[in-house]
């Protein structure tokens, strides 16, 4: 997989213009959702090479990250004259960069693409590292490919219009990067004031967070090995997220990951000696900032069935986890029995409820 260029922008307009002109393309399409079309696209209006760009607008949020929306994007590209030399710019959150990235990966077997993430989640995670895809049969990212965008341009200016819930959702993935990296970065994340955002401090933290991800992806782009560290919190987190998508209260991805990390850190404590004090501090931080997901023991079987679809699993029915022996001490390919997993869910309800 070719290395992806990630740019933490100082002068967004100039840097984007320069990156676009380095491509040779016949046409440019900009993919947005209804929100980013309204709030973010205007920030690209003065860029001369985008004056003639075609626009494709899709429905917002994870509920639209499906085959129907993907087919709509393919149709738009096809009927409006996109070729193999067309450049697709994905302007949006993780849903747009995941789905748009997969459209770019598959249209005429692959076209050039630039990601401009507009949410914290997509800046530190979804838009970086080349995982693209859609949800299918109520399962998260069930269909997809590894297809890195040629460039990812990150500008925290976009975050100024982001609602607090989406900001916290992205921060969930930053917490994950803190836990899998080192104590110094982790401590900074715990100290950052989420109620009074200092955007230049946040931009620095974003830069560090992206670097954690890039270093891991560079070592193992296709998730054969250490990249599974980036999936910490997701075995149970994705099950929580998919479970909530079927209720009247779907939760944002980063919230589900934060709650998944509570369970997986407890398993880390039991299995790998993750320190009790760090477990306590993390759970307290997550409980205070993210609240909790409500479920009962009648939901355990559903949650367990969802975990069986996790992409890290190698044998059917055996659930694979990434655990931690301490902050930055990554242990991949750990498994747990159904009984142990139910105990984690008991722990979650007792501690977070
Ligand atoms: O980039 C990765 O690798 C990750 O696992 C990052 C995750 O935070 C991200 O949510 C990813 O989309 C989940 O991937 P999946 O393979 O479990 O669907």
Series of H and E elements? EHEHEHEHEHEEEHHHHHHHEEH
Q: In the CATH hierarchy, what is the superfamily of the largest domain?
A: Dehydroquinate synthase-like - alpha domain
Determine the N-to-C terminus distance: 43 Å
Hetero groups in this structure are: the ligand O=C(O)C(=O)C[C@@H](O)[C@H](O)[C@H](O)COP(=O)(O)O
CATH uppermost class of the largest domain: Mainly Alpha
* Name given to the CATH architecture of the largest domain: Up-down Bundle
**Mean pLDDT across all amino acids:** 96
Structural class: alpha/beta
Helix content: 40-55%
Count of alpha/pi helices: 13
User: Order of strands across the biggest sheet?
Assistant: 1-8-5-4-2-3
Major beta-sheet overview = 6 strands, parallel
Q: What radius of gyration results from the CA coordinates?
A: 20 Å
Based on Cα principal axes, name the global outline.
globular
Low-pLDDT sequence parts? none
Total number of distinct structural domains? 2
Q: Per DSSP, what share of the residues sits in E-state strands of 2 or more residues?
A: 15-25%
Number of strands: 10
